[in-house]
Amino acid sequence: MRRLRTLCTAVLASLLMVTLAVPPAHAETGVRVTDETIPGHGGIDLPAKVITPTGHDGPRPLLVMPTAWATNNLLYVGAAKRLAYESGYQVVTYTSRGFWDSGGAIEVAGPEDVGDARAVIDWALENTDADPDRIGMAGISYGAGISLLTAAEDDRVRAVGAMSGWADLAESIYSHETISYQAVELLLNSAHLTGTPGEKLLEMEREYRRGNVQPALDLAPERSVSTKVDAINANGTAVMIGHAWNDGIFPPGQLTDFYGELTGPKRLMLSAGDHATPEAFGAVGLPNETWSELARWFDHHLKGADNGVDAEDPVRVKPNNGRGGWASFPDWESVSDGSLDYGLGEPVRSWDNWQSTGGLGEGPETGWSYGVGAGRGTVAESGTLLLSGALQQFADIPTGVSLPLVNRSYAGVWTGPRLPDGARVSGSPEVDLVVTPTAADQSLYFYLYAVDRYGSGSLITHEPYTLRGAEPGEPVEVGLRMEPVVWDVAPGQRLALVVDTEDSRYTDSGDRGERVEFGSTEEAPAALSVPTGPAPGGRA
């Protein structure tokens, strides 16, 4: 354990060295970094790095940056040095309680963590030349969540930059009552590896390992800024959100919902990547789009810079594939300006398709049912946490599938007509399907693919869904919204929907030997609606 912590520190330190040679514009301007121990909530010690600009007159705008889960205060020093040097910010970044050599125990962004952030603000106002009327907070992941929660409690925080954070903790790790297994295991194991879990976290883990997620769900509302949006709005906090389409810990849908409820100054940036990958290099001081926009955000809202931030469309999206450029919109709803609407037909075999496949037709088709075995996976998968999203971002390599190899004994498959001009999927696809399980608890996984003429599919988006307490043999009308995305479907490709019952990213409910029947009725016709947006280049 000690050796691994030492190794992790060495890696962070080596990344930090990349940022130390920022050439000065003139001799008087520079940056001073000092190590401090700041008393946190309840008197615990919070190891901090205080980054002070030299050559900039005070009082200075203050930025407080809580660290991400399982990291220490080296994380943001590169970005903090750049913010201090280029814009004159007084920056304090500290190791969140319970991690590494910080005091206390890991409280999962509880009231103690908010108390720590407020104590750091108090300390900075007393011990640096920080301006009490110009305070901002920023962070990645855990630090983003703490920043938003603190802004809801403390109206001194005028602006926030939340990168790869969450708004609804329960929806993130238990979407549609399905446990995000890879995410939960990563969070728990890294907490034990790099910190001291608090009693609440230990109790959540004990119950989770027994199959009981209720303790986690009980604690989630207090740790979810979605329950405190009225306070954020009342405080008038300027909120910028940066996030990745493929974030496997905090999927983007809960953040687009939160963004829509904000009434103050706000900005939303969504691009390719997985958890924290869009902004990771910027944290160590390297050029980065998210951090550059964050600096502009703070310059406008904390320094009053007339840099055009207030006049720009606040929603900015970049497609998840193809390395396309940014498109800007006045609000999230405008990301979609049309839709491809299909009715799901009965999966059948044909002369040109030896596996049972349903059509995605122009109108509803009702009165059919199709049964599959449950508890066994197919080649349709959502991918691997962090790895799949990073491959999509850096190499434009999607999570793929060979549609002919999807075993129709264990999955329903529907394909649509070729799209001769292609299409830009833009928003959250929606699926309606009648499901009849033979088990009370049954997991389902919905995948939307762009498929070429050879049957090779690229995963556009997906969504887990678990029936809980269903009456075996009784039909259930399932209606769900898949995770939002912007994806460019190439000319000649077609859309395909796959539904099966097992995915390695999640904890599955439903045993082998059980069955699931998919169907479409007059009262509840099976349907797929795929939102579309302006063609690439159609909006800047």
UniProtKB/TrEMBL annotation:
Pfam families: Peptidase_S15, PepX_C. The lineage of its organism: Bacteria, Bacillati, Actinomycetota, Actinomycetes, Streptosporangiales. SUPFAM superfamilies: alpha/beta-Hydrolases, Galactose-binding domain-like. Residues 503-517 have a biased composition (Basic and acidic residues). Residues 1-27 form the signal peptide. Residues 503-540 are annotated as: Disordered. Residues 295-529 form the Xaa-Pro dipeptidyl-peptidase C-terminal domain. This is Prolyl oligopeptidase family serine peptidase. InterPro entries: AB_hydrolase_fold, FrsA_esterase, Galactose-bd-like_sf, Xaa-Pro-like_dom, Xaa-Pro_dipept_C. Keywords: Hydrolase, Signal. It comes from the Bacteria. Belongs to the AB hydrolase superfamily. The keyword Oxidoreductase does not apply.
